[in-house]
Write a structure and sequence with these properties.
- The chain has about 190 residues and is of the alpha/beta class.
- The chain has a single domain, classed as Rossmann fold, CATH 3.40.50.
- The strands form two sheets. The protein has a five-stranded parallel sheet with strand order 2-5-1-6-7, sandwiched between helices. Strands 3-4 form a two-stranded antiparallel sheet.
- The mean pLDDT is about 90.
Length: about 190
């Protein structure tokens, strides 16, 4: 079994790509810490900075990936963005799959962990136009009532501006930038 680690800007289509494989999916965004957790990172406005990796439990995510690869099954949290908290758990079962997908905005932080733990991995940065990504993200977030519109607008602009730097960091970390079409073909070849 191999891990298909999919990174990309928020709204780039990571979840869509993950589900198109038909493989089990470990949603790394489900490892966000609860809003009430101590020492949550805050921006200058005092609001929690959900784009800061400190808002996320990297150790729990890495342990879940390792367990899923070695045991084929893991219990993972279910996180509600609207509630800013975990709201339950679910089972990810990869016992009969050639691979599983781990995807999320902090996936770039997991490649070094995979290498350190000697986990087989293919690392993809889903490369879409940043203005298309911005528009898709805004539509999704409004449709899902993730946050108040003003927050979504400000965060969306900040993420759009940050996207080129995020891409550079992902490539430097070892991710391969791919279009949706190329990523689907690359993952299909793993079957």
């Amino acid at each position: 079994m191999i891990i298909a680690l999919i990174a990309g800007a928020s709204g780039s289509g990571k979840s869509r790509l993950a589900h198109s494989t038909g493989w089990p999916v470990l949603r790394l965004d489900d490892f966000y810490r609860a809003e009430s957790a101590p020492d949550m990172p805050r921006g200058t406005s005092g609001q929690i900075d959900w784009d800061d990796p400190a808002s996320w439990d990297a150790t729990a995510a890495a342990d879940a990936m390792t367990t899923l690869l070695h045991d084929g099954v893991v219990t993972a949290p279910v996180y509600s963005i609207a509630d800013n908290a975990p709201v339950g758990q679910h089972i990810v079962d990869a016992t009969n799959a050639p691979a599983f997908v781990a995807e999320g905005i902090f996936a770039t932080h997991m490649l070094a962990v995979c290498h350190a733990r000697d986990l087989p991995v293919v690392a993809i940065w889903l490369d879409r136009g940043r203005f298309i990504t911005w528009w898709r993200r805004l539509q999704r977030d409004v449709r899902q009532h993730r946050k108040p519109l003003g927050v979504l607008w400000r965060r969306g602009i900040a993420l759009c501006q940050a996207e080129p730097g995020l891409r550079r960091a992902a490539v430097a970390a070892g991710f391969t930038p791919m279009t949706m079409r190329r990523a689907k073909a690359t993952l299909a070849a793993l079957n």
